[in-house]
Hints:
- The complex is a heterodimer.
- Chain A is an alpha/beta fold.
- In chain A, about 50% of the residues lie in helices and about 15% in strands.
- Chain A starts with 8 loop residues before the first helix and ends with a helix.
- The relative contact order of chain A is 0.11.
- The model of chain A has no long low-confidence stretch (mean pLDDT about 85).
- The relative contact order of chain B is 0.06.
Amino acid sequence: MAEESFLTDDFLRQLMNVGEVDILVGLPTHNNAKTVGSIVHTIQTGILRGFPRARAVIINADGGSRDGTPELVTGVSIDDARPASNLYALRTLHSISTKYANSSQPSNKVAFRTILAAAELLRAKACVVMSPESANVEPEWLSKLLGPIYHDDFDLVTPTYSRHKFEGLLITNLLYPMTRALYGVRIRETYSPEFGFSGRLGTQFLGQNIWTDATNGTGVELRFTLAAITGKFRICQSFLGEKIQIERRSADLVPALRQTVGALFSALEPDFPVWSVVAGSEPTLTNEADHGVLLEPLRINRKRLREMFSTGVAELESVFQSILSPATLAELQQIARLRDEDFRYPAELWVRTVYEFAASYQKSVISRDHIIQALAPLFRGKALTFLTENRNASAEEIENNIEGLCREFERLKPYLLQIWKSSE
Amino acid sequence: MREMIVSELNQALHELAKGFAHFLPRLIVMLILALVGWAIAYFVKVVLRSVLRLIKFDKLSENAGASQLLSKAALPSATEVLSRFVFWVAWLGVILLGVSVLGILGLQEQVAKFFLFLPRLFVAMFIMFFGLLAASFFSRAALLAAVNANVPSPRVLSLAVRSIIIVFVLSVVFEELGLAEQTMLVAFGIAFGALMLGLAIAFGMGGRDLARRFLEKKIVRDKKEENEDELSPL
């Protein structure tokens, strides 16, 4: 098996000792000692409650932690979970940890590949990837993400969350509407640190040639979701409740763009035969609520967003000349000059901007990473407009606005096809 | 006396005719070589132009910033300039080969020098092109990083990065060409030193207010933002 070559002998030996499993829980870590113990405990409780008869294994793919994370994962005893759940597993629950790197920069791609390879070797029926950075993992999440695969033959279960109305703006203003418009499937969280998948989807994705490409593996989770869509696998969504991250990485907009928008843009080229023939979009089956919106007031520095948008449009003119059409650039320059109270980044202009960025990315008019970085100030402008327009909006109004943006992405899809084809 | 002059004249004319008869075939060979050389150079030019168009060399040159330089100098596209350059070098090379056939003393040494210089010329052009490409890439990277980090005057930073790389590339190019090596070394030292000094003065004097505003903004903002919620894009 080709995948075996990158797995260490020790890890392979441990996998052989386990034999076949029904459920595999993947836990990619890197210096998560503060939280990983409680997360493993929650996972064990979740397995005991939801799948007591299943043969299960926890695979920890560690990116070179120096704080004893792997030892904590393997050290958590199933006995600690039993009193809490008042249930007993009828099968053994294994915990295996492998270190795939010794660097200070862990790779999601290698971690995920390790988990997929282990799943294939152990012939796991249902798998789930859990994030050690989620602060409020509940045992029920395991059942919600694994249940549809284990019991109902689904291949991919993506989560939906309760979020604050202004959290996840990149998802609501770009990722969700664009993947929906292009691939025709309404998946709310195409990029999530927690998701469940079937062994067959894992094996199919493991056979794809994304592992050898030059990218550093950012956005592999998104590529996985897109592979499930293009491969016509059965997909559903499960509502997990509120999403609380241990670290709120608001300042890291550029890395977030690389992980999500970069991954989406790079998938568009190989997936062109699929998305170019899709029209409209279909809802995805969702267990429980579709998603939730929290409305507590937030203090946000709007002035800074505005300033960074206007500075970006002015300073990056030479870069935008390579990426955007003259008409779009002229409109951007026009709105950058507007007074603060009149400022508005119209939905149509935003969609055209994103589509022109996608086409320029495909043509590689300049370095692809520079194209992604250049989108950051424009996204700040769009985020500011979203904040202003929805300052006093109810959950329903916000949902209507997001729906309106999605329809705009769908309406302008022929424009993307036109500029895409003109470059061929 | 008169007979002697006529005889000398006849002999001189005879020698001249003999020399011309000896030289003429070589001249014809040279002209033929020049003609064949033109055909070869033209063929090379056409092939090179097609290859460059196929690999989208103009796009690469545009990214490197070379196209902008060419258009400012009212020159044609990078593909056209390079193919014309190769045409002239190839044709000139063949002509010089033909000239060496003439057997003119002193000229052969110059021809040999020309051929020895050609590889250095191509290496220098290679360095220049990729140097411009690197300057364009890194200056754009600096510009984007500065804009996204909200650093004041990002274009100045980008221009500084570009200038430093171009000055360095030019010094390497001149050294490769062997043109006034000492002068270039000194000029590079002066230019680089002046650039650094200029930047230091610019930041120290010209940018004093800017630096003060930046620091004030940074400190004040940091204090203010402690009370502000941060948005997570994902």
